[in-house]
């Protein structure tokens, strides 16, 4: 499974060598663990990353996920170019299909996902980051889509998602020029939500994750789904989804408890995820 052959989507690595899972309270951190290749998204890495999200999905006590890269040099420094250099049409097509499915799994994951980005975030790393809901960058982060400079293009959703984040004009510029931008510029154009000192990256990501996890988990998951539907469908469809979702939350114990506490000027200790 860790060779050049593209596994069928859903085939899982038994040991998840390339993705590590750590839980702290209601927050789960998934570390992309391929530091000797700057966490390049090989087939094996994508396989284990998808398997890690499948594993976290089983734990309904997780209310937010952080994705980070192992080591100090990179979040993800792109694809595994050595592996990719051996692709023909069918191998490239299958890699793109498989990788797109893994990143869509992240994009559609039931909880918000935060990308904690340090160092290089290039090509496939940009595509992983864009599949996440929120991006926090260290001051040492650097961003680029270098694909066309290698005679190829994005293959796992980056060109589609980038437009929704920075706008069509800026997306075309970044994709066509291979421009390498620093963290402060990434924040200015809306590519990342905030920039923090490098040594404070994980603390900042955890602080935001815990803030998200402190809200009603069913409401947050329902809100994320509504935002996704709004970005992927037309206004009438997304509005109908919003109306039905809004109504459904009033059947939950969490909403009943929180609204009652507010009316009675009481503090709600915690949500029960029911």
Q: Mind explaining what this structure looks like?
A:
The protein is α/β, with parallel strands linked by helices and 274 residues long. It has two domains: 195 residues, 2-enoyl-CoA Hydratase, Chain A, domain 1 (Alpha-Beta Complex); 47 residues, Lyase 2-enoyl-coa Hydratase, Chain  A, domain 2. Helices cover 46% and strands 15% of the residues. The protein has eleven helices and ten strands. It has a six-stranded mixed sheet with strand order 1-2-3-5-7-10, sandwiched between helices. A four-stranded mixed sheet has the order 4-6-8-9. α5 packs across α6 and α9 packs antiparallel against α10.
Q: Quickly name the level 1 CATH class of the largest domain.
A: Alpha Beta
Strand adjacency order, main sheet: 1-2-3-5-7-10
Write down the Rg: 19 Å
Overall pLDDT level: 92
Distance between the amino and carboxyl termini = 39 Å
> In this structure, how is the largest beta sheet organized?
6 strands, mixed
Shape: globular
Based on secondary structure, the structural category is alpha/beta
Enumerate how many helices there are, as a single number.
11
Low-confidence segments, given as residue ranges, are: 1-13
Question: Any idea of the CATH topology of the largest domain?
Answer: 2-enoyl-CoA Hydratase, Chain A, domain 1
CATH second-level architecture of the largest domain:
Alpha-Beta Complex
């Amino acid at each position: 499974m860790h060779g050049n052959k593209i596994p069928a989507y859903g085939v899982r690595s038994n040991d998840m060598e390339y993705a590590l899972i750590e839980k702290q309270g209601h927050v789960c951190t998934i570390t992309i663990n391929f530091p000797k290749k700057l966490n390049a998204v090989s087939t094996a890495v994508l396989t284990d990353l998808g398997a890690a999200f499948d594993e976290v999905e089983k734990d309904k006590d997780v209310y937010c996920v952080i994705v980070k890269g192992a080591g100090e040099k990179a979040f993800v420094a792109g694809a595994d170019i050595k592996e990719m250099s051996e692709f023909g049409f069918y191998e490239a097509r299958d890699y793109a299909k498989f990788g797109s499915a893994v990143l869509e799994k992240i994009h559609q994951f039931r909880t918000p996902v935060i990308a904690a980005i340090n160092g290089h975030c290039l090509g496939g790393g940009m595509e992983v980051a864009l599949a996440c809901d929120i991006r926090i960058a260290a001051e040492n982060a650097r961003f680029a889509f270098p694909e066309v400079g290698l005679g190829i293009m994005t293959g796992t959703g980056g060109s589609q998602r980038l437009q929704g984040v920075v706008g069509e004009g800026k997306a075309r510029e970044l994709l066509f020029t291979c421009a390498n931008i620093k963290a402060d510029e990434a924040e200015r154009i809306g590519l990342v939500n905030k920039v923090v000192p490098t040594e404070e990256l994980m603390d900042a990501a955890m602080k935001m994750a815990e803030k998200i996890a402190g809200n009603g988990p069913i409401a947050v998951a329902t809100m994320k789904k509504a935002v996704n539907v709004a970005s992927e469908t037309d206004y009438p469809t997304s509005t109908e989804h919003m109306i039905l979702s809004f109504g459904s939350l009033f059947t939950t114990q969490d909403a009943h408890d929180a609204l009652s506490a507010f009316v009675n000027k009481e503090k709600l200790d915690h949500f029960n995820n029911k």
